[in-house]
Amino acid sequence: MVPRRNLGRLKSHRGKRKGLVSTSGNKREPAPRPHRQRQQSAELVIITGMSGSGKASVLKAFEDLGYYCVDNLPVELIPRFAELAVQSAEIRRTALVVDVREGSQLEQLPGILKSVRRMIPTKVVYLEASDAILVRRFSETRRPHPLGTDAPVKSALRAERRHLGDIRSLADFVIDTSKFNVHELRAHITERFREKSSEKGILVSSVSFGFRHGVPEDADLVFDVRFLPNPHFVPEFRPLTGRHPRVAKYIRSFPQSKEFIQRISELLVYLLPHYINEGKSYLTIGFGCTGGQHRSVMIAEEVGKHLRQAGYRVKVVHRDSPN
Q1: What percent of the chain is helix, strand and coil (3-state, nearest 5)?
Q2: Taking a C-beta distance cutoff of 8 angstroms, is the pair 320, 209 a contact?
Q3: How far, in Å, are 130, 165, 168, 225, 316 from residue 154 at the CA level?
Q4: How many other CB atoms are found less than 10 A from the CB of residue 12?
Protein backbone atom coordinates (compact mmCIF):
# COMPACT_ATOMS: atom_id res chain seq x y z
CA MET A 1 0.00 0.00 0.00
CA VAL A 2 1.42 3.37 -0.95
CA PRO A 3 1.31 5.64 2.12
CA ARG A 4 -0.88 8.69 1.96
CA ARG A 5 1.19 11.78 1.37
CA ASN A 6 0.89 15.17 2.99
CA LEU A 7 -1.19 17.42 0.78
CA GLY A 8 0.63 20.36 2.29
CA ARG A 9 3.49 19.73 -0.13
CA LEU A 10 1.26 20.84 -2.97
CA LYS A 11 1.80 24.54 -2.32
CA SER A 12 -0.47 27.11 -3.85
CA HIS A 13 1.26 29.98 -5.59
CA ARG A 14 -1.82 32.15 -5.74
CA GLY A 15 -1.28 35.64 -4.39
CA LYS A 16 2.54 35.64 -4.51
CA ARG A 17 3.82 38.94 -5.87
CA LYS A 18 6.60 37.65 -8.07
CA GLY A 19 7.81 38.58 -11.52
CA LEU A 20 7.03 42.31 -11.58
CA VAL A 21 8.62 43.81 -14.69
CA SER A 22 9.29 47.42 -15.58
CA THR A 23 7.94 48.58 -18.93
CA SER A 24 8.05 52.30 -19.64
CA GLY A 25 8.92 54.96 -17.06
CA ASN A 26 8.24 53.93 -13.49
CA LYS A 27 5.14 51.95 -14.31
CA ARG A 28 5.39 48.37 -13.12
CA GLU A 29 3.10 45.68 -14.41
CA PRO A 30 2.87 42.07 -13.28
CA ALA A 31 4.36 39.49 -15.62
CA PRO A 32 1.77 37.22 -17.23
CA ARG A 33 1.01 34.25 -15.04
CA PRO A 34 1.49 30.84 -16.70
CA HIS A 35 -1.76 29.51 -15.26
CA ARG A 36 -3.26 28.45 -18.60
CA GLN A 37 -0.03 26.72 -19.66
CA ARG A 38 0.17 24.92 -16.32
CA GLN A 39 -3.43 23.80 -16.64
CA GLN A 40 -2.78 22.34 -20.08
CA SER A 41 0.34 20.44 -19.04
CA ALA A 42 -1.04 19.15 -15.74
CA GLU A 43 -2.60 15.69 -15.52
CA LEU A 44 -4.70 13.85 -12.96
CA VAL A 45 -5.28 10.09 -12.98
CA ILE A 46 -7.95 8.63 -10.71
CA ILE A 47 -7.50 4.92 -10.03
CA THR A 48 -10.54 3.02 -8.85
CA GLY A 49 -12.17 -0.37 -9.17
CA MET A 50 -12.68 -3.65 -7.40
CA SER A 51 -10.97 -4.58 -4.16
CA GLY A 52 -8.13 -7.00 -4.87
CA SER A 53 -7.81 -5.90 -8.51
CA GLY A 54 -4.30 -4.45 -8.08
CA LYS A 55 -4.86 -0.76 -7.34
CA ALA A 56 -1.88 -0.61 -4.96
CA SER A 57 0.42 -2.10 -7.61
CA VAL A 58 -0.89 0.32 -10.23
CA LEU A 59 -0.41 3.30 -7.90
CA LYS A 60 3.17 2.16 -7.29
CA ALA A 61 3.72 2.03 -11.07
CA PHE A 62 2.50 5.63 -11.36
CA GLU A 63 4.82 6.64 -8.55
CA ASP A 64 7.74 5.08 -10.41
CA LEU A 65 6.71 7.14 -13.46
CA GLY A 66 7.12 10.32 -11.42
CA TYR A 67 3.48 10.96 -10.54
CA TYR A 68 2.64 12.52 -7.18
CA CYS A 69 0.54 9.73 -5.63
CA VAL A 70 -2.09 9.68 -2.89
CA ASP A 71 -3.87 6.55 -1.69
CA ASN A 72 -7.47 6.60 -0.42
CA LEU A 73 -8.01 10.34 -0.74
CA PRO A 74 -11.42 11.39 0.66
CA VAL A 75 -13.76 12.12 -2.24
CA GLU A 76 -14.68 15.59 -1.02
CA LEU A 77 -11.00 16.62 -1.16
CA ILE A 78 -10.51 15.73 -4.83
CA PRO A 79 -11.50 19.21 -6.17
CA ARG A 80 -9.06 20.89 -3.77
CA PHE A 81 -6.38 18.37 -4.69
CA ALA A 82 -6.92 19.10 -8.40
CA GLU A 83 -6.79 22.86 -7.79
CA LEU A 84 -3.49 22.58 -5.93
CA ALA A 85 -2.07 20.36 -8.66
CA VAL A 86 -2.89 22.95 -11.31
CA GLN A 87 -1.33 25.76 -9.27
CA SER A 88 1.80 23.90 -8.18
CA ALA A 89 5.04 24.71 -9.96
CA GLU A 90 6.60 21.46 -8.71
CA ILE A 91 3.86 18.88 -9.21
CA ARG A 92 2.65 18.30 -12.76
CA ARG A 93 1.35 14.75 -12.99
CA THR A 94 -0.72 13.33 -10.14
CA ALA A 95 -2.48 10.04 -9.41
CA LEU A 96 -4.82 9.04 -6.62
CA VAL A 97 -6.83 6.02 -5.53
CA VAL A 98 -10.52 6.24 -4.66
CA ASP A 99 -12.48 3.09 -3.96
CA VAL A 100 -15.20 1.41 -1.93
CA ARG A 101 -13.43 2.25 1.32
CA GLU A 102 -15.08 5.67 0.96
CA GLY A 103 -18.46 4.13 1.72
CA SER A 104 -21.50 6.21 0.83
CA GLN A 105 -19.30 9.22 -0.02
CA LEU A 106 -18.31 7.40 -3.20
CA GLU A 107 -21.71 8.27 -4.67
CA GLN A 108 -20.47 11.86 -5.03
CA LEU A 109 -17.62 10.87 -7.37
CA PRO A 110 -19.47 11.12 -10.74
CA GLY A 111 -20.52 14.69 -9.97
CA ILE A 112 -17.10 15.62 -8.66
CA LEU A 113 -15.49 14.23 -11.80
CA LYS A 114 -17.47 16.65 -13.97
CA SER A 115 -16.18 19.67 -12.06
CA VAL A 116 -12.61 18.37 -11.80
CA ARG A 117 -12.37 17.71 -15.54
CA ARG A 118 -13.06 21.40 -16.12
CA MET A 119 -9.98 22.25 -14.05
CA ILE A 120 -7.44 19.68 -15.15
CA PRO A 121 -7.15 16.92 -17.81
CA THR A 122 -8.37 13.85 -15.94
CA LYS A 123 -8.34 10.15 -16.76
CA VAL A 124 -10.14 7.45 -14.80
CA VAL A 125 -8.55 4.00 -14.69
CA TYR A 126 -10.94 1.30 -13.53
CA LEU A 127 -9.46 -2.05 -12.46
CA GLU A 128 -11.43 -5.25 -12.23
CA ALA A 129 -10.97 -9.01 -12.30
CA SER A 130 -13.17 -12.09 -12.39
CA ASP A 131 -14.82 -13.16 -9.15
CA ALA A 132 -12.83 -16.39 -9.15
CA ILE A 133 -9.53 -14.49 -9.36
CA LEU A 134 -10.54 -11.97 -6.70
CA VAL A 135 -11.68 -14.69 -4.31
CA ARG A 136 -8.37 -16.48 -4.79
CA ARG A 137 -6.41 -13.27 -4.11
CA PHE A 138 -8.33 -12.61 -0.91
CA SER A 139 -7.73 -16.20 0.14
CA GLU A 140 -3.99 -15.92 -0.54
CA THR A 141 -3.56 -12.63 1.33
CA ARG A 142 -6.05 -13.54 4.09
CA ARG A 143 -7.26 -9.97 4.13
CA PRO A 144 -10.93 -9.16 4.78
CA HIS A 145 -13.01 -7.46 2.14
CA PRO A 146 -13.47 -3.72 2.85
CA LEU A 147 -17.26 -4.17 3.00
CA GLY A 148 -16.82 -6.33 6.08
CA THR A 149 -16.61 -9.92 7.26
CA ASP A 150 -20.32 -10.47 7.93
CA ALA A 151 -20.83 -11.99 4.49
CA PRO A 152 -18.77 -14.33 2.27
CA VAL A 153 -16.23 -12.69 -0.03
CA LYS A 154 -18.29 -13.60 -3.11
CA SER A 155 -21.32 -11.76 -1.74
CA ALA A 156 -19.19 -8.74 -0.86
CA LEU A 157 -17.77 -8.68 -4.39
CA ARG A 158 -21.23 -8.74 -5.94
CA ALA A 159 -22.30 -5.84 -3.74
CA GLU A 160 -19.14 -3.94 -4.61
CA ARG A 161 -19.70 -4.38 -8.38
CA ARG A 162 -23.19 -2.95 -8.01
CA HIS A 163 -21.86 -0.05 -5.96
CA LEU A 164 -19.19 0.78 -8.55
CA GLY A 165 -21.35 0.34 -11.66
CA ASP A 166 -21.88 4.05 -12.35
CA ILE A 167 -18.21 4.83 -11.83
CA ARG A 168 -17.12 2.05 -14.19
CA SER A 169 -19.25 3.57 -16.95
CA LEU A 170 -17.28 6.82 -16.63
CA ALA A 171 -13.85 5.20 -16.90
CA ASP A 172 -11.46 6.07 -19.70
CA PHE A 173 -9.62 2.76 -19.27
CA VAL A 174 -11.12 -0.49 -17.95
CA ILE A 175 -8.41 -3.04 -17.24
CA ASP A 176 -9.19 -6.66 -16.37
CA THR A 177 -6.22 -7.66 -14.23
CA SER A 178 -7.18 -11.35 -14.26
CA LYS A 179 -4.73 -11.79 -17.14
CA PHE A 180 -1.78 -10.09 -15.46
CA ASN A 181 0.61 -10.96 -12.71
CA VAL A 182 1.95 -8.06 -10.64
CA HIS A 183 4.97 -7.47 -12.90
CA GLU A 184 2.94 -7.59 -16.12
CA LEU A 185 0.35 -5.20 -14.71
CA ARG A 186 2.97 -2.65 -13.70
CA ALA A 187 4.69 -3.01 -17.07
CA HIS A 188 1.38 -2.45 -18.83
CA ILE A 189 0.68 0.75 -16.86
CA THR A 190 4.23 1.97 -17.43
CA GLU A 191 3.96 1.44 -21.17
CA ARG A 192 0.61 3.21 -21.46
CA PHE A 193 1.30 6.23 -19.25
CA ARG A 194 4.97 6.95 -19.65
CA GLU A 195 5.66 10.22 -21.42
CA LYS A 196 6.22 10.13 -25.16
CA SER A 197 4.94 6.59 -25.29
CA SER A 198 3.98 5.09 -28.62
CA GLU A 199 0.30 5.04 -29.45
CA LYS A 200 0.78 1.33 -30.07
CA GLY A 201 0.54 0.75 -26.33
CA ILE A 202 -1.81 -2.22 -26.57
CA LEU A 203 -0.50 -5.53 -25.24
CA VAL A 204 -1.21 -8.43 -27.62
CA SER A 205 -1.20 -12.01 -26.36
CA SER A 206 -0.72 -14.58 -29.13
CA VAL A 207 -1.93 -17.84 -27.61
CA SER A 208 -1.71 -21.34 -29.07
CA PHE A 209 -4.12 -24.00 -27.81
CA GLY A 210 -5.66 -27.35 -28.61
CA PHE A 211 -9.38 -27.59 -29.30
CA ARG A 212 -9.49 -30.92 -27.49
CA HIS A 213 -8.62 -28.97 -24.29
CA GLY A 214 -11.15 -26.20 -24.89
CA VAL A 215 -11.01 -22.67 -26.24
CA PRO A 216 -9.24 -20.12 -23.97
CA GLU A 217 -11.89 -18.28 -21.97
CA ASP A 218 -10.11 -14.95 -22.24
CA ALA A 219 -9.61 -15.04 -26.02
CA ASP A 220 -10.92 -11.99 -27.88
CA LEU A 221 -10.29 -13.48 -31.33
CA VAL A 222 -9.97 -17.17 -32.22
CA PHE A 223 -8.57 -18.66 -35.43
CA ASP A 224 -8.87 -22.35 -36.30
CA VAL A 225 -5.69 -23.62 -38.02
CA ARG A 226 -6.73 -27.27 -38.26
CA PHE A 227 -7.03 -26.85 -42.04
CA LEU A 228 -3.20 -26.87 -42.25
CA PRO A 229 -1.31 -30.17 -42.80
CA ASN A 230 -0.73 -31.86 -39.44
CA PRO A 231 2.90 -32.69 -38.48
CA HIS A 232 1.52 -35.16 -35.94
CA PHE A 233 1.25 -37.72 -38.71
CA VAL A 234 4.96 -37.42 -39.54
CA PRO A 235 6.61 -39.84 -37.06
CA GLU A 236 9.81 -37.85 -36.62
CA PHE A 237 7.81 -34.68 -35.79
CA ARG A 238 5.34 -36.28 -33.38
CA PRO A 239 7.38 -35.76 -30.16
CA LEU A 240 8.42 -32.21 -31.19
CA THR A 241 6.47 -28.93 -31.09
CA GLY A 242 5.85 -26.14 -33.55
CA ARG A 243 8.79 -24.22 -32.09
CA HIS A 244 11.25 -26.78 -33.42
CA PRO A 245 12.93 -25.46 -36.62
CA ARG A 246 12.21 -28.60 -38.63
CA VAL A 247 8.53 -28.65 -37.66
CA ALA A 248 8.18 -24.94 -38.38
CA LYS A 249 9.87 -25.39 -41.75
CA TYR A 250 7.53 -28.28 -42.59
CA ILE A 251 4.40 -26.24 -41.80
CA ARG A 252 5.78 -23.19 -43.61
CA SER A 253 6.49 -25.26 -46.72
CA PHE A 254 2.79 -25.33 -47.63
CA PRO A 255 1.48 -22.33 -49.60
CA GLN A 256 -1.68 -22.07 -47.50
CA SER A 257 0.45 -21.67 -44.35
CA LYS A 258 2.38 -18.72 -45.76
CA GLU A 259 -0.76 -17.12 -47.10
CA PHE A 260 -2.63 -17.57 -43.82
CA ILE A 261 0.18 -16.00 -41.78
CA GLN A 262 0.41 -13.06 -44.17
CA ARG A 263 -3.34 -12.44 -44.37
CA ILE A 264 -3.97 -12.78 -40.64
CA SER A 265 -1.03 -10.53 -39.79
CA GLU A 266 -2.29 -7.87 -42.19
CA LEU A 267 -5.79 -8.15 -40.73
CA LEU A 268 -4.51 -7.69 -37.18
CA VAL A 269 -2.29 -4.75 -38.12
CA TYR A 270 -5.43 -3.18 -39.58
CA LEU A 271 -7.61 -3.98 -36.55
CA LEU A 272 -5.29 -3.06 -33.69
CA PRO A 273 -5.36 0.75 -34.16
CA HIS A 274 -9.17 0.59 -34.07
CA TYR A 275 -9.08 -1.39 -30.82
CA ILE A 276 -6.69 1.21 -29.39
CA ASN A 277 -9.01 4.03 -30.42
CA GLU A 278 -11.80 2.30 -28.52
CA GLY A 279 -9.64 2.29 -25.38
CA LYS A 280 -8.72 -1.40 -25.44
CA SER A 281 -5.43 -1.91 -23.65
CA TYR A 282 -4.87 -5.61 -24.36
CA LEU A 283 -6.00 -8.18 -26.88
CA THR A 284 -5.81 -11.97 -26.64
CA ILE A 285 -5.67 -13.83 -29.96
CA GLY A 286 -6.09 -17.60 -29.93
CA PHE A 287 -4.77 -19.97 -32.59
CA GLY A 288 -6.13 -23.49 -32.21
CA CYS A 289 -5.24 -26.86 -33.69
CA THR A 290 -6.21 -30.32 -32.50
CA GLY A 291 -3.79 -30.83 -29.64
CA GLY A 292 -2.08 -27.45 -29.35
CA GLN A 293 1.39 -28.83 -30.01
CA HIS A 294 2.40 -28.23 -33.64
CA ARG A 295 0.39 -26.02 -36.01
CA SER A 296 -1.07 -23.57 -33.51
CA VAL A 297 2.32 -23.16 -31.82
CA MET A 298 4.10 -22.33 -35.05
CA ILE A 299 1.35 -19.93 -36.20
CA ALA A 300 1.24 -18.10 -32.85
CA GLU A 301 5.00 -17.60 -33.03
CA GLU A 302 4.98 -16.37 -36.63
CA VAL A 303 2.06 -13.96 -36.18
CA GLY A 304 3.73 -12.67 -33.03
CA LYS A 305 6.87 -11.87 -35.03
CA HIS A 306 4.89 -9.96 -37.64
CA LEU A 307 3.11 -7.88 -34.98
CA ARG A 308 6.39 -7.06 -33.24
CA GLN A 309 7.81 -5.90 -36.56
CA ALA A 310 4.76 -3.62 -36.85
CA GLY A 311 5.70 -2.03 -33.52
CA TYR A 312 3.34 -3.79 -31.11
CA ARG A 313 4.13 -5.38 -27.76
CA VAL A 314 3.46 -9.09 -28.04
CA LYS A 315 3.43 -11.90 -25.47
CA VAL A 316 3.39 -15.41 -26.98
CA VAL A 317 1.85 -18.12 -24.80
CA HIS A 318 1.62 -21.83 -25.63
CA ARG A 319 -1.13 -23.06 -23.34
CA ASP A 320 -1.17 -26.75 -24.24
CA SER A 321 2.30 -27.33 -25.68
CA PRO A 322 4.25 -29.97 -23.73
CA ASN A 323 7.44 -27.88 -23.68
Answers
A1: 45, 20, 35
A2: yes
A3: 11, 17, 19, 38, 32
A4: 12
Element (H, E) at 302: helix 295-309
Residue range 202-245, pLDDT digits in tens: 889 999 999 999 999 999 999 999 999 999 999 999 999 999 99
CA angle, residues 224, 226, 230, in degrees to nearest 5: 150
Contact assessment for residue 259 and residue 197, using Cβ atoms and an 8 Å cutoff: no
What does the alpha-carbon distance between residue 91 and residue 93 come to, in Å, rounded to a whole number? 6
Mean pLDDT by 10 residues, the chain (323 residues): 44 36 41 42 89 91 88 90 85 88 85 91 93 87 73 83 89 91 87 63 91 94 97 96 96 97 96 81 93 97 95 93 83
Domains of the chain plus CATH, in order, are 7-12+36-193 (3.40.50.300), 203-318 (no CATH)
Question: What dihedral do alpha carbons 263, 279, 288, 305 form, nearest 10°?
Answer: 50
CA gap 221, 282 in Å, rounded: 12
Task: Give DSSP secondary structure letters for 213-282.
Answer: G---TT-SEEEE-TTS--GGGSGGGTTS-TTSHHHHHHHHTSHHHHHHHHHHHHHHHHHHHHHHHTT--E
* Cβ proximity of 87 and 114 under 8 Å: no
> Distance between CA atoms of 314 and 289, rounded to whole angstroms?
21
